[in-house]
Structures are given as structure tokens and as C-alpha cells.
Amino acid sequence: MSEALKARIAAVFNEPACPTNNAKTEKERRKGCSKPLTPGAAAGGCAFDGAKIALQPITDVVHLVHGPLACEGNGWDNRHAGSSGPQTYRMGFTTDLTEMDIVLGNGEKRLYRAIKEAIARHAPPAVFVYATCVPAMIGDDIEAVCRHATEKLGTPCIPVNAPGFVGPKNLGNRLAGETLLAHVIGTREPERTTPTDINVLGEYNVAGEFWQVRPLLEAMGIRVQACVTGDSRYNDVASCHRARVNMMVCSSALINIARVMQERWGIPYFEGSFYGISDTSESLRTLARMLVAQGADPALTERTEALILAEEARAWARIAPYREALQGKRVLLYTGGVKSWSIVSALQEIGMVITHTSVRKSTDEDKGRIRALMGTDAHMVDSIPPREMYAQLARGEADIMLSGGRSQFVALKARTPWRDINQERHQAFAGYDGVVALVAELHRALTNPVWQEVRRPAPWEPGGGYLDKAPALASPEAAAE
Amino acid sequence: MAEILHAHKALMSNPLKSSAPLGATLAYLGIAGAVPLLHGAQGCTSFALVLTVRHARESIPLQTTALDEIATVMDGADNLEQALVNLTKRMKPRFIGIATTALVETRGEDMEGDLRLMLERRKELAGVRVVLAHTPDYHGALEDGWARAVSAIIEAIVEPADGTEAVPPRVNLLPGVHQTAADIEWMVATAEAFGLSAVVLPDVSLSLDGTIPDHYTATTLGGTALEDIAHMGRARHSIAIGEHMRAPAERLAALTGVPSSVLRSLTGLGPADEFVALLASVSGRPVPAGLRRQRSQLLDAMLDGHFQFGGRRVAIGADPDLLFGLSTFFASLGAEIVAAVASTTNAPHLAEIPASRVVVGDLLDLEDLAGEAEADLLVTHSHGRQASERLHIPLLRVGFPVFDRLGALHRCTVGYRGTRDLIFEVANTVLAGMHAHGPEDFASAIPPSVGHEESHHAGAPSVAH
Predict the structure, then answer these.
(1) Could you read off the pLDDT of B346-398 as tens digits, one per residue?
(2) What residues in B contact A83, CB-CB < 8 Å?
(3) For residue B224, cis peptide bond before it (omega within 30 degrees of 0)
(4) Cβ-Cβ contacts under 8 Å, A43 against chain B
(5) Full-model pTM
């Protein structure tokens, strides 16, 4: 790893706007944020994964992974970040380093040729070049190759220097933010600006859910200059430094972008969420307030309040038919970060009960919000080992589990309803429309007769009613024979 | 003879191949009480895990040695040792299969030596069988990783036969990486129909076949039992499927003296006949009535389905053995293989694929070739979906990964029954795309434009000027 990358990681760890970092002592701060992983007991993605998640939603560029096959081969086109136009971002590009490239030190040459081929065929507005462990170890200088390629080929080549072994996904998110700040944001001027231009940071348009929010903003008269990075084009992001307000939606993943944009261009930012009715309204209100403070027409405030009034009423009316069936149903929420509180409030709004919410990847601020929402921290859990999770669900301690794909089968094998609320999901749950969609989905999950079906005893098991007249055949011993 | 062409380019676009460590992982998942362990950075495991979960729709016990930058540069052995100890304590496996990644192989260590010392030193690992396969990502692909893992298992666990034990009516089956749980079930049932029991190595039909256990297990639940692997020397014959399984089959034969056969494919009438004939001669029994009936059903399916195959222009992208098997199957029913793309060159039979040329390349090569050749059916794994959309031709999903359709492991495409069902699947895909004919479909019925010239010939009606 180069000295420059080491220094950048140290700087990323020492994020002045990060509340977790600020709460640390000087000595703790120097150690950085990455907890050392336990070999044989580690889960979660690497820094490269995190960087890719944060940048891949830029839809019109080539995302080129410099490394051996697996880094891109096992992970391309695996998320559902929606695009309203270009599909280039869904293609998987890699240098697929061979043994010869590595042994002979041909990595940089191969990378340059790959960039050239990608530009020749796809003519993208930019090429994002991702470092991975092997080229980082053998000393390939992707920053130099990108500089050279940008100069020679006339297309911006953006080095994303976040090889997997430098740390976890979160670090990769931050390094992606650094990349945008160093090479993209502010490199172009927008064609037009308005007093109500905003950027939304950390929104990846998973399953297209930003399309549930954008119409609200448009109805208020707010223009989204760039979503960083969901459904964005390179040019939107490159020229997003003229926006009036930044909203950060995925907790502190891209907090460095928000902080630096405030320092460089005086753009104020806030952290908000579009999950749940009250959080959505609160975010819209804050956006309006901050835009007005930045010089937007004060009538924005009234328009916003009118919209909120109408939309909240419309959402509640659409939710009402489900309320009775969902009231009091117990949810085990196994996610992390911003979702650990934003989903809590969404579910509580419709009368569901949270048995536990996991705070594995949550910041102290996230935890504070949960405490405020639930009145106690008794329901916060760190991680639940799968064996324990299975036991809890099998004992019926929750009516449904909401989590990411990794724990899906723990719930399903315990014959318990489950729905995906993580990045890989196929459903959109943002804004007022998303709350209705979530409620409808939870209702579908909980009321599906399949749960009675799969819990019904088999003919050879006692209690099934099939072999009541021949109990000997219905005993487990008979089945074993 | 197909000409073999290498796409000489620095940029791989839309990878067709999956990495070797993933192939090894899939093989280890077919062993009972197993935890596969990738020796690399946490991301190596995380990406492989997510993809395998999406394909199998099961929890996958895959662990990592979690190399960070310092461990990579200094020495990965400490991490390997810690990982073995930690996961043994937490997950209580009976078997740990280690697959190396590009990261550790680039640095280069004496991993076998290190491992031997660890296993001697660490008493807590005494009850666990640990196997290591070298599977750097930059060498080969899924088939190679799978085969190397199987060789490593054979090497480490099979007990050399001394020839004194009585040989029971048993066969060893060595399926290739593309055999599903359903494929293996058919192979085993067919062997049993001849009175032969079968030891399958590795056996994903017991571990990834989607059952609901009544308790939680951290390791694989089901798969080949270690005792059965140890006693593979007590069999009459070993049958390996696919050229990539030749090396493990030869290793097994060398260790045990059990004769072995490599069948290149089990899909199609000819390959199924070969398998059945082999079992008949190994068992010394006639082919049972049930199988004869199955064969007759297949013949009927071939007759009913050949209308949809004849002249069909098929583009296939797959690992070498799967490509070979599918190409011969399609060709045997009259389809034309207009594009054949192989993930790697590690196969002796690429030139025998019934196509004019075989390109070693990626899915963008397949897309380009299929477009140029005006293919009307695309055959590859789920990542072919983008090409299928752009080309407006249907995609038949085969191989690994199939993450956007259910039941990948329950789809049988081998033997009489599996071939019958595959014929129906292909024919139905074609039928679904058929439309009612209109005049534009009969362009060739319009007489050549002589009509115009005719009007100028001598006998044409004269036009008043």
C-alpha cells in the first residue's frame, strides 16, 4: 500500500464531522475505526465492496476493476440500484489479471490497455478504476495509470484506491467519498442552477426507491442536482457543488463529502431519512427550511406544509386497511446503521412491536435515536449468533424478521415470515409511498397461509390427524423404520 | 473440428467464468459437517458467499482467514491457524476445506508445511479433517477449483486399498461442478436400479437440496460422509463426469486400484446410454424395466421436440465441460451452434465441440457473436440476462450462477429423464416466442425483382407515349 493511501485512510478515520470519532480520546482516535477482524469468525464485505456499493450507481460510466477475476466476477450486477437511462454501470469490467501479469509485473500496462479498450467501445463520460488487493500488494500504481490515461485518452479516469484488505465496507464507503471529492465533485459547472437545488448523499436508489421520493421534491419545487450516487450521471455528480443544501441519507457513510462540501463551497448539510411517514415529513421540512435560509422563496415552506398534510393523510388512508392485522405484531429487526432506527419508527407508527433491533453497524448517534424511540435500550442487541436467532424464531418470539439476505434462511428454516430490508432487496420502501408498500408487504408476509401449511405435521407425525386410527404408524419410531 | 480462438484483449467485459476458489467452495459444500474456508481477505469470502447463497437459496457456511494488509505482507499462516481454531470452536465442523485465493498465492508460502505443523500443535483440531487446495483466482475457473478440491479430498482422506477386503456391489460417482442435486439423485437412483450402492464425492444432493432440518446447524447438513470417502477403495468402479474430473478420477484409481471411467457428459441420449451400459456391465445385471421405459419416453420427447430444435441457431457460453455437453446435445437434435464461448482453455475437448469455432472469452464476446450470427436462443448462466435483453432473444439459464430463477439445484438435465425434461424446456422456450405468421414472414416467397425488368423485354405490352 502506498504512503499516500495510508495517509488517506488515517485522514478518513479522523473525520472531524463524525460524532463517533469526536467522542473518542486522542489515543483511541489514532488507532482508527477498523476493529481487527477475527479470522474464522468474520462476516461482511471488504473496503473494495464498500467503495463499489457507493460508486456503482453512477449509471453512465465504466466501472473497471483492476484485479484477478473473483473481485468483479463474483460480484457484478448483484444489486438493484435503479437507472432511468444508461445501463453501462450494470456491466462487469475487469482486467482479470493472469499469473503472467502478476509475475512479470504487467498489471499497469494491462490496466492502461483495458481502459483504452473500454473507452473505444463504450465512450463513457468517465472510467472509474478500482484497486484490489493483489495489484495493491505488487505495487501497481493505479493513480499514475489513471493520470496518464486521462491525459492520453481525454476521458476522466478516476482511481478508486480502496483495496479490500485495508478494512471493512464502511471504510470503503468513506474512501469512495474521498475519491469523489478528489477527482469528481466540482470539476464541472452545472448548465443551470436554481435557488432550490439540492444533493442527496448516500442514496443509492436501491430497487428504485428514490423514485418514490423525487416526485415529492418536485412537487415542492425542489430540484435534485445530484443523487450521490443513485441513478446519477457522471456530469450530475461532477457539477453538484453548486447545490444549496446537502441531505445525507445513509447515516455517516458519505459524511466526509457533506463536511468537505460545506468547507469548500459553503453548502450546509443535515442527516435525514426517507423511511417512515414522520421521518419523511421531517426531512422535507428541514430541506425547505434550510433552502429558505439559503435564499429560496419563503413560499416553499407553505408548499411543503401543504404537501406534507396531504401526503400524510393519503398515506394513512392507504395504510388503514392493514392496521388491524399488523397491530401488536412482533418484529425482530436485524439490520444496522441508519436502518436500525429509521425502520423502527416506521414500524412503530403502524402499531407493530419491535422485539429487538440490532445495532452492529450503528453509530452512537444511531443508538441515541433508538433509545429515544423505544424509551429504553433493552431492545438493542449487538449481533445475534445464527443458532440463537434460529432458537428465538423457532420458539415464536417474533412474528416476523426483517433483515438482509444473509440471515434469510435462518428465519425461513424456522418457518417464520421474513422480508429483506437491505441493499440487495427488490422492493422500494422510501417516502410515503414506500411506507405503504412496506406495510402491504408485511401484511402479505404475515397473512400468507403458507405459514400454517409449512407448520402442519406430516402424515407420520403425531397431531396431523391422518393416522389417528393407526397411532402406531404415526409415531416417530415408525417413521424411522 | 472447431477452431479455438483466444480473445486477445486486456479488458474482460461481463465475466463468463467464475473463480476457482468458488468452485472449490462448492465441492467442499458437498461434504458432511463441512465448513469451507477461503484463505484470503474478507471480501473474497463475502462475494463468494453472497453469490452462492443467491444460487442455492440456502445458508452457506463459508468462512474467511480475513487477511488484512499486514498479515498479507508478513505471513498469512497466523491467520490460517486462528481461523481453524476459531471456526472449530464456534461451528464444530468435522471437515474444513481450505481454498487459497490469488492474494495468498501471489505472496507464495509453504502452506502445506505450515498446515501440517498447525495440526500437530493444536490439539483442539484433532477431531477435524482439514484439506487444502491451491486455487488462485488467476488460474482456471469453476471446474478447475472444484476438481482440485476433490483431488485434495481424495489425497487426504481416501484410505489406500490393500486388496484384501471383499468388494461390495458399489460404485464411486464423481460428479462435475455443474451436476445439480437432482442430477445426482438420478445418477444414484440409476445405480441402485442395478443393485449398486453409490458413494458420491462430493454430494450436494444431500447438502444443498433444500430441506428443512428441525434444528440449526452451523456446518453443512448432509453431504458425503468422511467414512464413506475413506472407504472409496471398496468399490467396483468409479465413474467421473466431465473431463475436469479426469485428474481426481485418476488419483482415486492410483490410490485404490479401483478402475475408473470418465464420461464427458450425461446429457443427451448417447451419453445417457453410455452411463446405463457402464452400470449394466459393472453390475452384471440387465437394464431394468423402469430405465427402458425412461429411455422410451426420451425417444418420444426427441420426436416431439425435434421440430423446435431443427435449424435453431443457438449461442452457448459456459465452462468447457458444460459447453461440450450442451453443444453436443443441441447439435444431436438438429440445432446449429452458431456461437460457442468457453470460459477457459483447460480442456482437451474444446476442438471437438460441434461448432466451426470456439472462442475463449467473456459474455460480451458471446453477445457479439450471437448478434453477428443472428442466434435465436442464448444459453448461459443468469448473467446472460443483459445480453438476452439487448439481443431480444430468450435465455436458457444453465450452470453457475442461476440467481434470478428458483430451483437451480432441483433441475435435472442428465440421463433419460433429465434430457427429456430439458428438451421440453428448450422447446417451450422456443414455442413461447412464436407468433402468428404475417406476410412479412414470407419474404422469400416474393419472386425476384425480375418482374420489373420483364416489363422492358421485347414482348411486353407497349406503353403509349
Answers:
(1) 899 999 999 999 999 999 999 999 999 999 999 999 999 999 999 999 999 99
(2) none
(3) no
(4) 42, 46
(5) 0.93
CB contact under 8 A, A42 and B136: no
Measured CA to CA, the distance from residue A392 to residue A59 in angstroms comes to: 42
Hey, are the CB atoms on A405 and B79 less than 8 Å from each other?
A: no
Summarize the confidence of residues B296-317 as an average pLDDT: 97
Q: How many angstroms separate the CA atoms of A54 and A51, rounded?
A: 5
CB-CB under 8 Å, B42 with A42: yes
- Partners of B102 on chain A (C-beta within 8 Å) are 67-68, 70, 97, 102, 133-134
Contacts of A320 by beta carbon, 8 Å cutoff, 6+ apart: none
Cell digits of residue A290 = 434550510
- The C-alpha of A390 sits at a distance from chain B's nearest C-alpha, in angstroms, of 7
Residues of B in contact with A164 (CB under 8 A): 41-44
Mean pLDDT of chain A: 89
Contact B19 A76 (CB under 8 A): no
- What SS3 class is residue B378? strand
| B363 within 8 A of B7, measured Cβ to Cβ | no
Kindly determine whether residue A92 and residue B383, on different chains, have CB atoms separated by under 8 Å: yes
What value does the mean pLDDT take over residues A180-189? Answer: 97
- CA torsion, points A182, A184, A185, A189, in degrees to nearest 10? 130
- Checking if the pLDDT of B81 tops 80, the result is yes
Contact across the interface for A413 and B216, Cβ inside 8 Å? yes
Q: What is the pLDDT of residue B313?
A: 97
- When CB atoms are compared, the residue of A42, A110, A137 closest to B106 is A137
Grid look-up 433483515 returns A403
H helix count then E strand count, chain B: 17, 15
Report the gap between the CA of A183 and the closest CA in chain B (Å). Answer: 23
Query: Are the beta carbons of A322 and A350 closer than 8 angstroms?
Result: yes
Cross-chain Cβ contact A40/B86 below 8 Å: yes
Q: What is the mean pLDDT of residues A444-458?
A: 93
Q: Are A246 and A220 in contact (CB under 8 A)?
A: no
Residue type present at position B332? S
What distance in Å separates the CA atoms of residue A383 and residue A334, rounded to the nearest whole number?
A: 8
3-state SS, chain A, equals CCHHHHHHHHHHHCCCCCHHHHCCCHHHHHHCCCCCCCCCCCCCCEHHHHHHHHHCCECCCEEEEECCHHHHHCCCCCCCECCCCCCHHHCCEECCCCHHHHHHCCHHHHHHHHHHHHHHHHCCCCEEEEECHHHHHCCCCHHHHHHHHHHHHCCCEEEECCCHHHCEHHHHHHHHHHHHHHHCCCCCCCCCCCCCEEEEEEECCECCHHHHCHHHHHHHCCEEEEEEECCECHHHHHCHHHCCEEEECCCCCCHHHHHHHHHHHCCCEEECCCCCHHHHHHHHHHHHHHHHHCCCCCHHHHHHHHHHHHHHHHHHHHHHHHHHHHCCCEEEEECCCCHHHHHHHHHHHCCCEEEEEECCCCCHHHHHHHHHHHCCCCCEECCCCHHHHHHHHHCCCCCEEEECHHHHHHHHHCCCCEEECCCCCCCCCCHHHHHHHHHHHHHHHHHCCHHHHHHCCCCCCCCCCCCCCCHHHHCHHHHHC
The C-alpha of A71 sits at a distance from chain B's nearest C-alpha, in angstroms, of 7
What pLDDT is attached to residue A78?
86
> Cα(B164)–Cα(A423) distance, rounded to whole angstroms?
59
Q: Across the interface, do A70 and B47 touch by the CB < 8 Å criterion?
A: yes
Q: Choosing among A49, A101, A134, which should be mutated to test the B contact, i.e. which has the most B CBs within 10 A? A: A134
User: Which 3 state secondary structure label does DSSP give B260?
Assistant: strand
Cβ contact B43–A47 (<8 Å)? yes
Terminal Cα-to-Cα distance of chain B (whole angstroms): 64
Give the count of beta carbons closer than 10 Å to the beta carbon of residue B451.
9
